[in-house]
Amino acid sequence: MFRTVCAPSIARVTDRPAQTDRPPGLLPARLRATWDVIRDKGPSQLQFWFIALGIGIASGYLAVGFMLSISTLQTFLYGTDDPRMLHSFVVNLPWWWILLLPAAGGLLVGFILTRFTPDGRVRGVAEVIEGAALREGRVERRAGLASIFASLTTLSTGGSTGREGPVVHMVGLIAGWVSNKINADGVTGRELLGCAVAAGVAASFNAPLAGALFALEVVLRHFAVHAFAPITIAAVSGSVVSRIHFGDVTEFRLPADGTMAFYAELPAFAILGLTSGLVAVVLMRSVFVAEDFGTAVQRRFVIPAMARPAVSGLMLGALAIFFPHIIGVGYETTSAALSGNLILHEAMVFAAIKVFAVAVTMGGRMGGGIFSPALMIGALTGLAFGLLATGIFPDMSGSETVYALAGMGAVAAAVLGAPISTTLIVFEMTGDWQTGIAVMVAVGSATALSSRLVARSFFLEQLKRRGIHLAAGPQRYLLATIRVSSVLKAPEHPKAPKEDRIRRAVNEALFVDPSDTLEKAIPLFERSNSDFLAVVRLKDEGPPEIVGVVLYVDALRVFNRALAETAAEEHA
User: Fold this and answer.
1) How far apart are CA 340 and CA 406, in angstroms?
2) Which segments constitute the CBS domain (predicted)?
3) Which of 344, 388, 448, 540 has its CA 20 to 30 A from that of 190?
């Protein structure tokens, strides 16, 4: 992927002029010349690593800044000294403040999204995955910036989502800016995006190893060796930035007596994994049902787009009066579940209410991500399962908190469709590596089940609902990246059919528009068994204008080349 740049000859050290004798402006001139070479010919491997380091540091500071902004606003709006203990503090606030604050936040979110996005939707991880696959590593800039402020408002005023979605898209903007500055091709642009995502995730969760694997497994969706080094550099630098500001601490603390009966308990963890997979599917589908229901209600009662998040915020506020644990990312409740400080009834009810709250927040088109809620719901699910299992088989069971840890990883892995990176995130967030086998068994069975019920992950299912089929693999989504105009032949081209055949094809509806992609053309080829399609522009009046033809053999040739390039990138 790297294009090595030949360096100019360098004089012997003894022949160099002293630093004080260097003509003014020589160093800036050399830097400009180096930048021009990078922009015109691409970075060398060493230069790319330095770029990855810079992106990692910048992404780390953006992630830290986003987290600090949420904490500062929550402290101001809710009056708490420790935003991590928000649940306990909200209990003592006036009911009307709990009710109205999320609604006010939703109103501001609605204004931001309707004013600065074309469709009123928040951008997140799904759009970053789309950018990596279809846009050469670039993400939307204007809508992305609006989504950052919308998510910041949502999380600060009580929205029941997480911070990782906006962080991933936010750092993707940095990668896109750098890619545009150096005129990066698709391979380089995707790897720069992977570097930014790895650093952002590593800084958010103090998990450098998981951040690097998250970028490879979820965003790039391959483990090419040439991408590993720069992504690792970026992830480590992002994590270092986080530790400078927050210290080398784990996100959650587990009780010291968390144990398991090991081999005798492994079947129970497999069953927990299946249960967690079903819970993850319920969570994902609840969000999609809420999205469709909200759209139907909005159309039925002609509700302005700006008011939709406000209505959702009002619903959340009403729910938070009775269940304040739904406010924010829910780390206090997650910690309570991992510590075993909840009873069976509380764990089950809190999990169900949290699923409903996440569906209301995301279905109402407020901001935030789904990973942190999945961690909380998974920990509650695992604790409830563990309390039942240890109660029924006390002589064959260890601690119920191990089940909470395994459930947390299993639900989150099924939602993200990322068993490897999610397992590592759980380990790095808790610092507990002794129960690794239990977590791996639960994660494996959860993802195996959920991937059969949704398009592998929440994000890929989101894209599938918009007609973007990335889960089907490059043989499906690459067709949508190749426009008919790129393989168009003029009617007078020697290989083009005669004019009467072209007009006959138009009369038989065997035609496409120049702006269409091969995703539309290839199925039409296969249904008609034709060796060409007419390319026309339809007019409001009169016959369609014949622009040219696209030959089946040309379409297949371009498609095969795209597949080969993708395979070369993934297996380099």
Assistant:
1) 13
2) 502-565
3) 448
Mean pLDDT over the full length of the chain = 86
* Structural tokens at position 264: 């005798």
| β-pairing verdict for 545-551 and 532-537 | antiparallel
- CATH annotation of 474-570: 3.90.1280.20
- Residue 101 CB: number of other CB atoms within 10 A? 22
CA dist 460 and 419 (Å) reads 15
pLDDT one-digit tens code per residue, 70-118: 999 988 988 877 777 787 788 888 999 999 999 999 999 999 999 999 9
Check if CATH label 1.10.10.10 holds for domain 45-246: no
- Residue 520 falls in which region: left (phi positive, over 0), alpha (psi -120 to 50) or beta: alpha
Q: Do domains 45-246 and 262-465 have the same CATH topology?
A: yes
The three-state (H, E, C) secondary structure of 12-48, written as one string:
CHHHCCCHHHCCCCHHHHHHHHHHHHHHHHCCCHHHH
Helices (H), 215-265: 225-246
The whole-angstrom separation of Cα 405 and Cα 74 is 27
Distances (CA, A) of 251 to 84, 240, 336, 426, 430: 11, 15, 13, 9, 6
* DSSP 8-state code for residue 487: G
Query: How many whole angstroms separate alpha carbon 45 and alpha carbon 63?
Result: 26
Give percent helix, percent strand, percent coil of the chain, each to the nearest 5: 70, 5, 25
Beta bridge partners of 548: 535
Q: DSSP secondary-structure letter at 253?
A: -
Contact 128, 197 (CB under 8 A): yes
Least confident range of 7-11, 55-59, 487-491: 7-11
Q: Does domain 262-465 sit in CATH 1.10.3080.10?
A: yes
DSSP assignment of 345-413 equals HHHHHHHHHHHHHHHHHHHTT---BSHHHHHHHHHHHHHHHHHHHHHH-GGG---HHHHHHHHHHHHHH
Which residue is it, tokens 């009662």?
A: 301
DSSP labels, 34-84: HHHHHHHH---HHHHHHHHHHHHHHHHHHHHHHHHHHHHHHHHHH--S-GG
Determine the pLDDT at residue 257: 54
pLDDT over 90 (residue 27):
no
